[in-house]
């Protein structure tokens, strides 16, 4: 190749190198701009989320004091240090994925649900029954959840005292007599309030909808029953006496939704003689105790080994349904499961 050809080739190579260099530089700039754009977008989204959280609060809910009077409870932000004082509220917090906010819990009526056991093990158990005021103050909670009874003078005292300390309170509706009859619906309202308090309404709306849908399916099945089972709902008080749950109680509503008729109009006491006279088709037997060793077969003996009850239809036909207090009082994650189980035991032919 002559000198002229060499110079042309050299120029082409130089131009090619410059072109490649420019393309790479532009590409790098474009990549940097894209990265900066993404970073800016992420910052904007994070900032927007923070603004959303800040603009959501404060929120106000209606709740109750120990006297059953309505009170307004204001939350300036989501609670971060929550003490649950009863099993129903503990299991609700765990099931809604709010365990990171739990600083303590107490008072089991029955063994904790198996599917929540691992979460429960990580929570401090403050006391076997209700805690003392001193124990609660030492924990520095910003919210106390539980039954109305925890706010009695002999336990933690009225809610006003706690609110003066900037500690909010929440009593489950089905433990407050002034609310009226205790119902499954009241339990759904409690869950809805928790959604408002913790700004998780999307989750609680779906949670409640799923429960309503399940309940509706149960009622659709049991509505076909023409001859409804007549039921007594009992809890042993000792010495041959029983507490009977009426239609005004949560478990009364649960039995109704399961397609049965509660023979007791209102709650009260009942003797063995009263049970014989009522002659129920089935007995729903409420028990409490957090010992996992308690077996249903042993609980059933309360009736099967009492000769005075031998001719009662529920005993003769072995229609004694065992249910825990954690299922039947206040309302929580177990309520609809229990209704379904009652319906299946009362009308097994509907669920084949």
Automatic annotation (TrEMBL):
Signal peptide: 1-30
Keyword Coiled coil: yes
Gene3D superfamilies: Nitrogenase molybdenum iron protein domain
Regions crossing the membrane: none
SUPFAM superfamilies for this protein: Helical backbone' metal receptor
Keyword Ligase belongs to the record: no
Coiled coil location: 201-228
Residue ranges of every copy of the Fe/B12 periplasmic-binding domain listed in the record: 81-352
Matches recorded under InterPro entries: ABC_Transporter_SBP, ABC_transptr_periplasmic_BD
Keywords for this protein: Coiled coil, Signal
Full protein name: Iron ABC transporter substrate-binding protein
Annotated source species: Clostridium botulinum
Upper classification of the organism: Bacteria, Bacillati, Bacillota, Clostridia, Eubacteriales
